[in-house]
């Protein structure tokens, strides 16, 4: 039931993504969402109480915004003949990143506790945020 609630928490993000893109530039939006993800996971790692669930739902809403933005970004910049290949490559890259992050989460969650695993994910988001800040001008 909790997993279904997290899934449904992503729906509002999916639905408002196109409106947010009209209001902000894509690079700014990606930086903002990544900051929300990093802050949410960091709070979840540090809070250790029921308010962490609110942060987890905020992370899910923010993650819901990323999916249509990433798919739209690729689909508008790739020739239609290459779209299936690029979608497959994106899926491969996403799954590789999930495996690497999952291994790190498992390592820190087993070595410390569950909150240590969330702290690791917060660290990964913060590192990616620094990368986005460096390349934000090139994202259009």
TrEMBL record:
Sorted UniProt keywords: Membrane, Transmembrane, Transmembrane helix
The keyword Transmembrane helix is annotated on this UniProt entry: yes
TM ranges: 26-46, 52-71, 92-109, 115-136
Domain of life: Bacteria
UniProt-recorded name of the protein: Putative MFS transporter
